[in-house]
Amino acid sequence: MKKSAFSFLVVLFFSLAAFAEYNIGSIPDSAQIRRSIESAWLLPSVSVLRGYAEEFRENEAGAAFQIRMEESDSEFSVVVAPRSELDIDLINGESHHLVRASVYPKGAPGSWILHRDKKTGNPLRIELHFSQDADVFVQFRQEGSKTFADMLVYGSYAARSVPMGIPFRRLYSASFQEIRNWTARTLPWNKVSVIPGQYRDSLVMVSVIKDNLSSFVFTDSAAYDEAGELKSIVTGGSYEFASGDGNRALFQSGKAHCLSGAGFLKWIIDGIVEPITGRGTSIMELLRPTVQFDPVGKLGVLSQEWNMTFALDWCRNLAAQAYSVRSRRTVDFKSAGLDVTYSYFSSDVKDGVIVNSSGYIKDTGYAAERIKPLLYVLGVTEPSWFYLAAIRQGSSIKPDELVFNNCAVLFPYFSENGRFGCFVFEQGAEISLEAFIEKYKGSYIHLDRVKATETFFPYEKK
Fold it and tell me: How confident is the model at residue 236 (pLDDT cuts 50, 70, 90)?
């Protein structure tokens, strides 16, 4: 009797352990289903699969999956996708009727996709989706008798060609937890494993900024000084509105913030600094150079006539001021490690072709087109920080030279269901991340980190 009871407890323990593993990340797993459909769905030729209708099955936990075949010009794939619920608004004239429909998107968490060559039938790769963002996934490739793993984030490789040490066919029936265990030390899961609920301070700041956006009017070269007086960034003196400038009346009415893009970022950081110190940041301190050029080099000669790094210096010094107040010691951007200098990605995928990625370039930043995957990883690994972005782009004065003239602020975050988002504010207005990237295509974005805080009280206009 004792032996039987002990055996029962052992079985119960391992059953509970397996169920606990299944629930890590709340990702529905199709391993059991794939084991049962391997000969029928994963091995036959494309001509055979064309005759199949989609099939529906449930895993051991009751999660429903759809099995279907899709094909393109050169490939065909077998998709094993979990069910999701989608609310659809049916409109009939002036009446609306909300219905809930079941869908099986192939990029949903838990989706498993086998890609095969249409001519030979050979397996090409397996995609396994685990994120709420379909463009973040792991894939496995067979090269000869070896299996390699890649991790992709919005078309950039966070890891590429990592040896798996297992037969490719073993992945046909492997569970997500088994794959996590096999790659725990070789794939950078820490860069993509989202933990929601860590973005409260950032979202509080975003809410306050949004509440004030209607009071901003872009005014070139204008910023508040440490006492809250409107000054010229260029002269350091009181800001003088041009004759006939309609912004003068708005400002004098006390209802509008008349600020430049740099002044807008200063307004945000002053909302962190002023409640603690009683004063805002100093304009002259923010203008301190942070880049040393060879005086006889091309950029050194140009910098004697033009400020080539204005926005970079401004963002670095603002970040240092915020850090100094928080740490209660005076630091500069370099000693505090405020520049974002990671080179997370080894290469990118562009139009299906692998291209090299330059990553971070000193005193320049990242190519604007590659900023989204970086922000995704920063949102995972640095959940309580936001970023001042200095933009290096072609100059209107010297089009063949890149200069730091513009700046913005970025708040990456994840929603409660784990979906990535990023609030972007520039020149007193909100802009989508996609529009921001498109606007500065061909330019570079340099990031400096600032700790988010709910103790955020910027100057307000009523």
Answer: confident
Place 23 in a pLDDT band, splitting at 50, 70 and 90.
very low
Distance CA 215, CA 211 (A): 9
How far apart CA 356 and CA 146 sit, in angstroms, is 24
Give the integer Cα–Cα distance in Å for 99 and 411. 34
- Closest listed residue to residue 25, CA positions, set 209, 237, 194, 198: 194
pLDDT in tens, 162-186: 999 999 999 999 999 999 999 999 9
Query: Please, where are the H alpha helices in 165-226?
Result: 176-182, 200-212
User: Cα-Cα-Cα-Cα dihedral of 36, 40, 43, 44, to 10°?
Assistant: -170
Compute the distance between CA of residue 416 and CA of residue 421 in angstroms, rounded to an integer: 11
Between CA 64 and CA 32 the distance in angstroms is 12
**Cβ count within 10 A of residue 426:** 22
Q: Please, what's the b/e burial string for 29-48 (b: 16 or more CB within 10 A of its CB; e: otherwise)?
A: bbbebbeebeeebbbbebee
Q: Which residues pair with 102 in a beta bridge?
A: 85
Mean predicted confidence (pLDDT) in 433-451: 97
Spatial distance between the Cα atoms of 183 and 171, rounded to a whole number of angstroms: 13
CA distance 106 to 334: 44
Specify the pTM: 0.89
Place of tokens 């998709």: 79
Q: Give every CB contact of residue 48 below 8 A, 6+ residues apart in sequence.
A: none
> In angstroms, rounded to a whole number, what is the distance separating the alpha carbons of residues 281 and 317?
9
**How far, in Å, CA of 120 to CA of 135, rounded?**
28
